[in-house]
Amino acid sequence: MLNTLSGRFLILTTVFVMLAEILIFVPSVSRFRLDYLNNRLERAQLASLALLADDMLETELEAELLANAGVFNVVLRRDEMRQLVLSSPIPKPIGDTFDLRMGSAMMLIRDAMMRLVTPEEQVIRVIGAPVREAGLLIEVTMETGPLRAAMIDYGLRILFLSAVISVLTALLLFGAVRMVLVKPIKGVVGHMQRYARAPEDARGIITPNAGVRELREAEEALLSLQTELTQALKQKERLAQLGGAVAKISHDLRNILTSAQLFTDRIEMSEDPLVRRLAPKLVNSITRAVSLCEGTLAFGRAEEPAPTFSLVALHEVIDDIAESETLAAKDAPVEILNQVPAGSTLRGDKEQIFRIVMNLVRNARQAIAATGKEGRIAVSLREDDSAWWILVTDNGPGLPKKAQDNLFTPFQGGARKGGSGLGLAIAAELARGHGGSLALGCTGAEGTVFEVCLPKGDGTL
Asked: Phi and psi of 124, rounded to 5°?
């Protein structure tokens, strides 16, 4: 219960009410002391009136009057004359004098607290004004023991009453908080838990109905969040289904196009001039279609596998890429240079690094081939204390503005006509899997530079 909002509120309410009652307790006890002393003065004045009515009171009767008044003697001042009206032996010297006619509130509180914390019994002199203007002043001497006992009794009753009031107030507030705050909050939490168990179930979406403004705002915010999340989940599900269908279609279409690609070799051997003129365009179209299908299948994977780190001989990897792309270029005048020093190694996944550089080199080769001019692609390596940097540099036509704005966005970042932009998107994802990055260094009429950053980490395998 102590860990609940209502339980802690109950405890805090009890504590704060008790603190408020304690603040009331101090002036209350001070007031009780003042009333007690005034009561003794009034009793002493009544006892003195009996003597004034009959000057021949017996000693026993005088002692009884003093005992009833709770004082040792009574002094009246009337007509500037100080008169000892009633008297009896005082057991000890007078320890202190209190004039009730001139005491301030702070002085009365101080005297009351001092009396509570002083257990030693004293004889004190108390001075006050007689009631009904029966003289100039009245003065009595009395013991402090009965006064202190009465103050303690009164204080205990005040504290007990304060405790009862605190508990009752806390219980009432506890019930009110549970009804007004805790129950609606639990309702919101219940909606969140129900929605988390089945986010596709629209019945789990909250309907705002709280009367408290803050809770109403929280419910409306939760409603908005649940609505948007449900729509996003439905959209994601539809996209996943669409992606699965596209992957299947791309797979089958790739097989069909690959078969068609085999027949184009015979078409190129035709003696018909028109066929020989149109055959290269047909071959290029089929090749682009196959490339798009392969890229779609590669990007459509749920996620790339985590890289398996090992020491990679980068010079050999670049040699393989250069040989493969040189064969793919056929008659295109594109030179691929391996400027990585022999024996250079870095830490990474060999297959994924091959795919990263292959995509960059292939994009550069295709961009240069589209111009019909001679070109050069160079792959180099540099390193610093924290990372390896693979640079792919070409002297092609540069990237158009649209391609730069959507450089790593699938199906939007293609730099050439018919390109899908999947190559750069896949390469960037593989680089991030290594904890690194793929970035465009520069581009323009003089060529383009891509930079692959692979962090060294701690260098362990």
From this structure: -125, 155
